[in-house]
Design brief:
The chain has 503 residues and is an alpha/beta fold. It contains 20 helices and 17 strands. It has a six-stranded antiparallel sheet with strand order 3-2-1-6-5-4, sandwiched between helices. It has a five-stranded parallel sheet with strand order 8-11-14-7-15. Strand 1 and strand 2 form a beta hairpin. The structure holds adenosine-5'-diphosphate and magnesium ion (MG). The site of adenosine-5'-diphosphate has 17 residues, from helix 8 and helix 16.
Length: 503
């Protein structure tokens, strides 16, 4: 478009061009662009509206002028009003007198008590797509906007488009970087899910069937049965295997933080929000999100999650825009969700959204055939990690392992094997290394999820076990030391070192 650019206007435009490249804060850049546009075309008010693709409306990203803050509360439908028309047809529109144009949408002006006379509005295009409009209202002096003004406003519109493009690609690059890092971390060959029992084979077949789809998978089962590992298998078998698998432990994040953790927040959303934060859902875009311990989510967060599952749309806390997300969801819980729904602790509608393809991972005691396989593989691993060369298990040890109840499931088995590899001084792991033969022996008192050093874990175990034996022997140290096959003086030293007392 040909138009005469006055020198001062040119200066203003050059100033704005440099701002675009100097700052990443898009809101500020757009505000300054509109401020310049306002000056150059000598308007009373100006706004930049963006299209919200989720509901086909225009919202005010920037609104300058006396009533700027008030006008920001409104949204326009595409096609509604002058701005809506420009957004719909993607053509500039110069309306010298709004009274004579039936496209003009009076309501907003009336409600905010602002007299609109003339409007100039141009589309904001990113490549070939219209993403919003720039609008200036009321020429300063008793004058109307000219074609020159239109040309200038179009220049500002182009600048705004570049600024938005820059930030969006910056944003995308940032996302991609994070994804790449995640890939590097997870580039290791995923741990194989061991198990050849009929029950497990069935589950692995289900995993194969569902992996290639985008179906939501809900993993159920007791703690330590391998739900998380199973989710990994599904992700690595899916077409999303080269994208991120983002894990969120819903139980580990305080209720007040979970929303921003999942959805991110925009700068200024609350006092501590000093910059934009990417949510886990954004990070998982293109890949898979695994929501572990989903039964722990509060009711309010459950509602927010439901929205994402229904529309696959994510919105940052404090943000006005929404984003379409391409995410595969998996979730896990050791809770009985039916029961949780009945007790009104879990939203029924969310439950139905999650329960599309439930897979129940049976407890270890119900698939005893897998115990020797798992034990062997853990032995291999801990031999390597602990630089030992233990050959295997005595048949008595295998019997004990397969006969045990395993309240902590595979996780507990893994811990028991690790401990026995530490303790074992022979070629083969035998009964005495396992500490499982004793009836009533329970590791429930140990926090299996806690992160302990090996020494701490072993000491915890020693303390528990010595207490058990002392209880059985009526706290007679001599008797206990015979059972434990250690010197009485050594037992007495352990008792004081491990802070054991009768109460
Ligand atoms: N079938 C299996 N094969 C190999 N390792 C397993 C298997 N099942 C569980 N594990 C291991 O046991 C531990 C607990 O498994 P996890 O997936 O965290 O259980 P859950 O999520 O059900 O609590 C993990 O270290 C996991 O690698
Ligand atoms: Mg788990």
């Amino acid at each position: 478009m040909a138009f005469s650019t006055r020198e001062k206007d040119l200066e203003e435009i050059i100033k704005i061009s440099t701002i675009i490249n100097s700052s990443f804060d898009i809101n500020e850049v757009l505000r300054r662009i509109m401020d310049s546009a306002n000056k150059v075309v000598k308007a009373k008010a100006s706004s930049l509206l963006l299209i919200d693709e989720t509901d086909n409306t225009l919202y005010f990203q920037v609104a300058l002028g006396d009533k700027g803050d008030e006008v920001k509360k409104y949204k326009l439908k595409i096609g509604e009003g002058i701005a809506g028309w420009v957004a719909k047809y993607s053509k500039p529109l110069l309306v010298p007198d709004v009274k004579n144009d039936k496209r003009f949408y009076k309501d907003i002006s009336k409600q905010i008590n602002f007299e609109t006379k003339s409007i100039l509005c141009v589309p904001l295009k990113l490549r070939d797509r219209t993403i919003g409009v720039l609008e200036v209202i009321n020429k300063n002096v008793n004058d109307t906007f000219s074609l020159d003004d239109q040309g200038l406003l179009e220049t500002f519109s182009n600048l705004a488009a570049i600024a938005i493009e820059n930030t969006r690609s910056y944003h995308d690059i940032r996302l991609e970087n994070i994804n790449l890092k995640n890939e590097l971390i997870s580039d290791k060959i995923p741990t194989k899910f061991i198990g050849e029992s009929k029950l497990i084979k069935e589950k692995l077949e289900m995993a194969d069937q569902v992996a290639e789809t985008n179906t939501t998978v809900l993993l159920l089962g007791e703690s330590g049965t391998g739900k998380e590992l199973f989710a990994e298998q599904i992700h690595y078998k899916s077409t999303r295997r080269n994208k991120s698998l983002i894990k969120v432990n819903c139980a580990a994040i305080p209720d007040t933080l979970i929303e921003t953790e999942l959805f991110g927040h925009v700068k200024g959303a609350f006092t501590d929000a000093i910059s934009d934060k990417l949510g886990k859902f954004e990070l998982a875009n293109g890949g898979t999100i695994f929501l572990d311990e989903i039964g722990e989510l509060s009711y309010s967060v459950q509602s927010k999650l439901l929205r994402v599952l229904q529309d696959r749309i994510i919105q940052k806390v404090g943000g006005t825009t929404s984003k379409q997300a391409d995410i595969r969801l998996m979730a896990a819980t050791n809770k009985n969700l039916y029961e949780e729904v009945k007790q009104n602790r879990f939203r029924e509608d969310l439950f139905f959204r999650l329960n599309v393809f439930p897979i129940f991972i049976p407890p270890l005691r119900e698939r005893k055939e897998d115990i020797p396989l798992l034990a062997d593989s853990f032995l291999k691993r801990f031999n390597q990690e602990l630089k030992k060369n233990i050959k295997g298990f005595t048949s008595e040890a295998v019997n004990i392992l397969t006969g045990y109840f395993w309240p902590g499931n595979v996780r507990e088995l893994q811990n028991v094997i690790e401990r026995s590899v530490v303790l074992c001084k022979d070629e083969m792991i035998s009964r005495k290394d396992l500490f499982l033969g004793t009836e009533n022996m329970s590791f429930k008192s140990m926090d299996m999820d806690a992160i302990l050093t090996l020494r701490e874990a072993v000491n915890n175990f020693k303390r528990d076990y010595i207490i058990k034996v002392l209880e059985k022997t009526g706290w007679k140290q001599t008797k206990a030391s015979v059972v434990l096959k250690i010197q009485r003086t050594y037992l007495s030293r352990l008792i004081s070192e491990l802070n054991i007392s009768k109460i």
